[in-house]
Design brief:
about 400 residues, alpha/beta, Rossmann fold, eight-stranded mixed sheet, five-stranded parallel sheet, about 25% strand, elongated
């Protein structure tokens, strides 16, 4: 969603400036063209040449930079689709709020034609000062956006609110600024991750799903304005912003949570890898190792997607299923489309579906198949949600 976007990253003089290196790398990974500007104080924490290998040129620290024929701040402010100020220190926020433009970062902010996103970073006592709150409010009134700060370990060794959010969260917030809010008014339910079927208090039957595809769908849906309920199996992923999360463990728990949320849903996207079977008996104590083989009796779990398909009236809610296959990917997906009475099946091969940032899928519906090229999971999420939007009549 940042592919082709031109982004200026501005660094203030705080210890969190070292995170700007990872931020610039992440923005580049998402397809953005990046330029970097720095205050003089920021150069005490990270060198301007550090960014040369990431952007193709060193960071700009001087309003009189000779590599620009004209006024550097005017050129960059007009060139950029957006500015990201990370870290935004207390001093930088104060000067920006009061219209100062005496260094390259502030002057570029003053000339910005696009939106400005601030990622504050400072000691908790500085963040809580009334002056800082006034300056943040003044910048917000002018249209600026903010991401963070969050509570965590500070440079002083103390713990408090003032820590700059991680680079990926800043990139996510920037992406959200460019996403059309075309799903407003829709309630989208997404399931994600595996289920764990307990054998005893120690062991379980599970699968290799990471939940990343489902979480990407939930995140992009929320960015596009939908009200999102995310039913998540046992994963360690952070909850996307503006998403209501319901944690579950077993297939039966997932079924109950999805059914409850689906009662008010406009669309249900079943990206979770739900276990087909569970142990017939869960022992209260750890099973002890015995001589010879162990035979487990398994009973079938309910098919959550098929149950939703059989129970719905007409074409509401929109139903999207997933088919992770090891052979006959499209053929098996089309069979699932008919048997489970869903509107769309997202099909892929197991070798493409687990882990990683990218995915290769085929979108299968009643009219045919659409193979997608290798895309990031966020891009795949966007394509799926485009189909959901059309199916919902938006």
């Amino acid at each position: 969603m940042l592919k082709g976007r031109r982004i200026v990253v501005g660094l203030g003089g705080g210890i969190a400036a070292f995170k700007a290196v990872a931020l610039v790398r992440e923005l580049g990974r998402r397809g953005a063209e990046v330029r970097v500007v720095m205050t003089e104080a920021a150069t005490r924490f990270v060198g301007p040449m550090t960014f040369a290998g990431l952007t193709g040129r060193p960071a700009i620290t001087d309003l009189w930079d000779p590599s620009y024929a004209g006024e550097v701040h005017v050129e960059l402010g007009g060139w950029a689709d957006a500015l990201v100020i990370a870290p935004a220190t207390m001093n930088l926020l104060a000067r920006a709020a009061n219209g100062h433009a005496d260094d390259v970062v502030l002057a570029t902010i003053a000339c910005a034609k696009g939106p400005v996103l601030y990622a504050p970073a400072m000691h908790e006592r500085m963040w809580s000062r009334a002056a800082t709150r006034r300056n943040v409010a003044a910048l917000a009134d002018e249209g600026a956006s903010f991401v963070g700060p969050v509570e965590g370990a500070l440079a002083s060794g103390e713990v408090g609110r003032g820590r700059m959010v991680e680079p990926e969260a800043i990139a996510d917030a920037l992406e959200a600024m460019f996403v059309p809010r075309d799903l407003e008014g829709l309630h989208v339910v997404v399931s994600a991750g595996p289920t764990h079927e307990d054998l005893d208090p120690v062991r379980f039957l599970g699968n290799r799903s990471t939940g990343r595809m489902g979480f990407a769908i939930a995140q992009v849906a929320a960015q596009r304005g939908a009200r999102v309920t995310l039913v998540a199996g046992p994963v360690t992923l952070a909850t996307p912003p503006n998403v209501t999360r319901v944690d579950v463990r077993s297939a039966l728990e997932l079924e109950a949570a999805v059914k409850a949320a689906a009662s008010s849903a406009d669309a249900v996207i079943m990206a979770a890898a739900v276990a087909d079977y569970r142990p017939a008996v869960r022992t209260e104590q750890k099973r002890k190792k015995a001589e010879g083989p162990l035979v487990l009796e398994l009973v079938r779990n309910p098919d959550v997607v098929a149950g939703l398909g059989a129970a719905r009236e007409g074409d509401t809610p929109v139903l999207v299923g997933f088919a992770l296959e090891t052979e006959k990917v499209v053929e098996n997906a089309r069979s699932k489309l008919v048997r489970k009475k869903v509107d769309l099946v997202v099909a892929n091969h197991a070798s493409d579906g687990f882990g990683g940032d990218d995915n290769v899928v085929v979108l299968v519906d009643a009219s045919g198949e659409e193979p997608l090229p290798k895309l990031s999971k966020r891009e795949v999420a966007g394509r799926i949600l485009d189909r959901v939007k059309a199916l919902a009549g938006r």
